[in-house]
Every structure is written in C-alpha cells, then in structure tokens.
Design a protein that fits this description.
Layout: E1 20-25, H1 37-44, E2 46-52, E3 70-72, E4 77-81, E5 99-103, H2 114-127, E6 131-135, H3 171-181, E7 187-191, H4 219-228, E8 248-251, H5 256-264, E9 271-278, E10 290-297, H6 305-316, H7 335-340, H8 344-347, H9 351-369
Parallel strand pairs: 1-2, 1-5, 2-4, 5-6, 6-7
Antiparallel strand pairs: 3-4, 8-10, 9-10
Helix pairs in contact: 2-3, 4-6
Domain Peptidoglycan beta-N-acetylmuramidase NamZ C-terminal: 223-375
GO molecular function, one term: peptidoglycan beta-N-acetylmuramidase activity
Domain Peptidoglycan beta-N-acetylmuramidase NamZ N-terminal: 21-219
C-alpha cells in the first residue's frame, strides 16, 4: 500500500520536537484517509502559521485572483498569502518559524505555479535560516519528460527555472533538483513516500483525485492540460467557465467540424476528439457560443501531450480571427512566450525544428534529473 509523505510523519516526528512549524498547503494536502495535513500538524506539532498559494488555502479562488491574508477560524491560525503582492514569504510572515513545510498536489508541469511557490519559499527559508520540509506525493504524469527547457529570457511565475514542460519528478524530487542544481541551498528535508512506483498509473493507488485547482477537475484533465494550457496566451477559450476546462477548446471564429476533421487527420496517439459547441459562463468569450473540439484521453501511455498540443495549436492559429494576447503591461513578454518558454511558437517556427530542440532538451534534462530520483 502506498504511503504518502504525510502518512509517515510519525517516523519523522523528532524533526519537529520543540520547533515552531509553518505550512504551505491547500485542500490537496491530505493523508491517505483524506485528513488535512494542516489538521494533522495542528495535532502532532506546534503549528503556528499557514501559507496560501494561488487558488487559496481552501482552493476556492479562480486562476490569477490575488489572495489576501486572513485568520482561519477553524484552525485558529493566520493564513498568509503567497499569491498577492508578495509571492516569496517575507521575513515578517516567517518570524518565529523554525520549520516551513510544503504539502500540495502537483500536476507535473512547468507552468503550474505551485512549484514556484515552493521554490520561492525555499529561497526565503535559506535567507531566514529555516529548515524546509516537503511531504512528498505522486506526480500524476509519471516519469516521462517532454518539451523544451525554459529560455530564461522568458522567466516568470509560470516558468522560473530551466526545466521542460513535463519534467517527470515528484514534487519532493523536484525540490531536491531546485535546491542543488539551481543553487538554492536551503536546509531541505524530503519525507518520501513508501511503495511508490513512478511508472505506475496514478489510479492504481486508489487515491481519489483532489482537484489541485478549480479547472483541473479530473486526472484526465491534468494530462490534457499539458496540451492545451497554451491557449491562455491567445483569444481561444481553453474551456474555463465550462464543466470541461482544458478539454474543450474553441472560439466564436472557429469552424468546429473543420477543426475536428483536421485534428483527426493528425492521427495523434492516445486521444480522440469530437466537434463541440459551448458557451463559457465566465472568462474568455463569456456568454458567447464557441466552436471547437472536445479532447478525450484514451491511452495516457501513448499520449505525448506537449507535441500533440503544438500540432493542434498549429491548426487553430490558421483561423481568421485568431490572436495572441498582448502582454499584461507595456514592455513585458506576451503570455504565449511565458507558457511555451521561448518565442518559437509565437514566431511560427516550423514544428520539425521545434521538436528537434525538444529532443535535445529532453535528453539533457533526463540526465540531470536522474540524480534526484528517490523512486525507481
């Protein structure tokens, strides 16, 4: 039976004796019986403060919504926001903390902000002489590596270190890589899982999928998200405001039947598509009928989401009316470059050139990440 990092806290309890503990978490921070890590630490150690990532400590805030600090009545603790004015914990909100813990479900993708909340917190822990503890949990996308290494000219909170889109490490292993390879050098302890096979299907562990954010409601959506997140940098709806976010892609100017026929002609492994018409209740094209495709994951072992996503993107960008979104502020990089980690997609670089670079970058990263594998 799989034991998550938090399931093994009793074996590491001496680490916490006589220490004031802070915790970065959200509703996915639970043990195998779905008890919140915050409640477990409140009972077993001297938990003195909580820290909230994007989407908040309760996971009820939409993407990009700034989170304010507040007092949690149930736990009787202050919750400090790490997704507002300051994404790195300040010395003030870390005052009195001896150990800062991290327990949240990751999705295994470079553009997911939780891993940079962790990285910034590790940097702050180093600066403030605080031990940093990661309770490890599975990467739903497994060990596979796919995509280009981030060009640091396009560094942001959706891509801070030079890793590929799909990096094939658990969050604990990734913390180890961040700490050594990118020279954070904090006092890091990873509490590993027991009986974890990174090559196994997540579903074999009989763990319920707890949405790490509001728009990843199923494990299938996490896989397809790797292929469709890039539409956040365009005027195409990625399905926010529907019951199938990231699995529905469309816009008022797209011909759904034409797009579906062209995507089917790609013969992409591991997915099926159908034409779809939907009306988002919020976000892009709110209240307008969008036309596009619905993506169904049929075999995750055969699906190459990043490559497949780029191939579909190359079709969608040909429709009249398609646009890349402008940068949030003058002089900033456009969102598409931040999400793709470079300018090749925006510039229309041929896919064969992009994929050749993928192969080089993937091989480079595979060699690097081997040093940090805790599970084989």
């Amino acid at each position: 039976m799989l034991k998550l990092g938090i399931d093994r806290i009793d074996s590491y309890i001496d680490l916490f004796k006589g220490k004031n503990v802070g915790l970065i978490t959200n509703p996915t921070g639970v043990d195998s019986n779905l008890k919140l890590t915050s409640e477990i630490l409140k009972e077993k150690v001297n938990l003195v403060s909580l820290y909230a990532p994007e989407h908040g400590i309760r996971g009820d805030q939409e993407a990009g919504a700034h989170i304010e600090s507040y007092f949690d009545q149930k736990l009787q603790l202050t919750v400090h926001s790490l997704y507002g004015k300051n994404k790195k914990p300040s010395s003030e909100i870390l005052e009195g903390v001896d150990i800062l813990c991290y327990d949240m479900q990751d999705v295994g993708l470079r553009f997911y902000t939780y891993i940079y909340t962790m990285a910034y917190a590790m940097i702050a822990a180093k600066e403030n002489n605080i031990k940093f503890v990661v309770f490890d949990r599975p990467n739903p996308l497994g060990r596979d590596v796919e995509g280009n290494l981030l060009d640091l000219n396009y560094r942001s909170f959706v891509g801070y270190y030079s890793i590929p889109q799909r990096y094939g490490l658990t969050v604990g292993e990734l913390a180890m890589l961040f700490n050594e390879a990118f020279e954070i050098n904090c006092d890091l302890v990873v509490i590993p899982m027991e009986n974890y096979d990174p090559k196994a299907d997540y579903k074999t562990y009989n763990l319920p999928w707890l949405s790490p954010s509001p728009n990843l409601p199923t494990i299938d959506s996490a896989f397809v998200y790797a292929a469709t997140c890039y539409y956040e940098g365009t005027n195409v709806s990625e399905g926010r405001g529907t019951t199938r976010p990231f699995q529905l892609i469309g816009a008022p100017f797209i011909d759904a039947d034409d797009l579906c026929e062209k995507v089917r002609a790609l013969n992409l492994d591991g997915i099926k598509v159908r034409p779809i018409h939907f009306t988002p209740s919020f976000s892009k094209h709110q209240g307008q009928t969008c036309h596009g495709i619905e993506i169904f994951l049929t075999d995750k072992t055969k699906f190459s989401p990043v490559r497949s996503g780029y191939q579909i993107f190359n079709i969608i960008r040909t429709y009249e009316g398609f646009e890349f979104l402008k940068p949030f502020k003058e002089g900033a990089n456009p969102m598409i470059n931040l999400l793709t980690g470079g300018e090749d997609v925006k510039n229309g670089t041929p896919l064969d050139e992009i994929f050749k670079q993928f192969e080089k970058d993937e091989n480079t990263f595979r060699e690097l990440k081997k040093r940090y594998h805790l599970y084989e």
